[in-house]
Write a structure and sequence with these properties.
Shape: elongated
Radius of gyration: 16 Å
Number of strands: 3
Distance between the termini: 22 Å
Helix content: 25-40%
Low-confidence stretches: none
Number of domains: 1
């Protein structure tokens, strides 16, 4: 999976930054974005890989995860 970070301009003209959508590809992410923001203009799209490492779910692992 990949995370896509969008900056858009809504149909009312307001700029919205840092909308993050996790999807298989860019087209799927754009489709999901347009379901939430009808008639928006996409100003920028960045993509980054999702870190799929497994963390320990004990108390110490959760504290380390929160403190990162």
């Amino acid at each position: 999976m990949t995370k896509f970070e969008f900056a858009i301009r809504t149909r009312a003209g307001q700029r919205v930054d840092r909308i993050v959508i996790q999807a298989q590809d860019r087209e799927t992410a754009k489709r999901r974005l347009r379901q939430m923001y009808h008639h928006c203009e996409i100003l920028e799209c960045r993509e980054s890989a999702v870190d799929l490492r497994q963390e320990n779910l004990d108390v110490e692992g959760i504290i380390n995860l929160i403190s990162k």
